[in-house]
Amino acid sequence: MTDARVVDPDATIDLLQEMVRIPSPYFEEHDLADFVYAWLADRDLAPEYHHVSEPDITGYEGDNVVARLEGNDPDAPTLLLNAHMDTVKLVEDWAEDPCSGRIEDGKLYGQGACDMKGGLAAIMVAFEALAERDLAGDVLFTAVVDEEGPYGLGADRLVRDGYTDDCDAAIVTEPGPVLSQGDDVENPALVLGARGRFLYDITVRGKAAHGSQPEKGVNAVVDAGRVAEALTDIEVGTHPELGDGSVCPLLLDGGSQTLSVPERARLMVDRHVVVGESEADVRADAETAIAALDLESEVDVSFREAPEPDIRYGPYVTDPDHPLVGSLRGAAERVTGVAPAIAYFSSVGDFNYFGERAGLPTVIVGPDGENIHGAGEFVYTDEVVEVADIVVEGASDLLG
């Protein structure tokens, strides 16, 4: 790190360790939300709870935590800082307490340490530091729930309730390199886009018969397997930055009786897409592939049930010439002494909601680590501090 150090490294890692020790699997973020709120309130940063409710499918009730710094020029841009508070469900294979927060050899261990409590700690201390600066533009801090859950309800609610309407750009401190396209991305890195995702939910209807006479029935499980294989052969889209799309069957469920030809099966298939592939394209691709099989079963192609029809992870790419990218590039060089790599995310997250649905130029810049979503997850502590400094310097340049 160069002389551009801004935040207190020890306080930053102490904060991260405290948060890792608070379990916060998705739909169970209440204790961590209260902690984030109290931390901001103790520093007179005027946090507010932003309620998130989804009664129909998940029955979820929770709260984002938001806060705002007001600049002195109403015509200056507004910058969104975002991180999620939740983790995946606690993995059973840990050889130690999954929320230990143990630090060893520059690595802090714990479920969600990298994805993404490291990034959350970074924007918290960055927001505190920015409050001490004379900025022309506003900064909107958002710590959200349910990024790891099925719908990204926290970020969705921010967009739906208009929090992003007056924002001009966004920084999301997700772990970037470990989840980027390619194996050679290292921090410092600016991740300027992400693929999108659809989830096929396909019903296959066959005909029941006695299992000793399968020729008298139509086996929905067998036909669902054929559909799964056909979908993996779809010609996916490609993009110069985002790479190729992908298709991956995730679930095949059907049959329950001990000696009956299964008459129903359900198939769920992941489809990652690139810019230029629409929902209509994705549906048509599946229907064409299935029609070519000429199956006896009836096949209905749909998508996963969602709380609202416009909840989607759309692909996006941020212009590398956007002022936010320039500000972060310069900040990364000042903080680390190294020009940042430019990369693109391989999967989806809240950044898709900001980059595609909200239409905000969105950059992912976050600390790296390993074993994301698994036992032994860790984050590099020095990168947490570097990311915080980069956010402060980049935001100051953009909004100053």
UniProtKB/TrEMBL annotation:
<dbReference type="InterPro" id="IPR036264">
    <property type="entry name" value="Bact_exopeptidase_dim_dom"/>
</dbReference>
<keyword id="KW-0862">Zinc</keyword>
<comment type="similarity">
    <text>Belongs to the peptidase M20A family.</text>
</comment>
<dbReference type="GO" id="GO:0016787">
    <property type="term" value="F:hydrolase activity"/>
</dbReference>
<dbReference type="InterPro" id="IPR002933">
    <property type="entry name" value="Peptidase_M20"/>
</dbReference>
<dbReference type="InterPro" id="IPR050072">
    <property type="entry name" value="Peptidase_M20A"/>
</dbReference>
<feature type="domain" description="Peptidase M20 dimerisation">
    <location>
        <begin position="193"/>
        <end position="294"/>
    </location>
</feature>
<keyword id="KW-0378">Hydrolase</keyword>
<keyword id="KW-0479">Metal-binding</keyword>
<dbReference type="Pfam" id="PF07687">
    <property type="entry name" value="M20_dimer"/>
</dbReference>
<dbReference type="GO" id="GO:0046872">
    <property type="term" value="F:metal ion binding"/>
</dbReference>
<dbReference type="InterPro" id="IPR001261">
    <property type="entry name" value="ArgE/DapE_CS"/>
</dbReference>
<protein>
    <submittedName>
        <fullName>M20 family metallopeptidase</fullName>
    </submittedName>
</protein>
<dbReference type="InterPro" id="IPR011650">
    <property type="entry name" value="Peptidase_M20_dimer"/>
</dbReference>
<dbReference type="Pfam" id="PF01546">
    <property type="entry name" value="Peptidase_M20"/>
</dbReference>
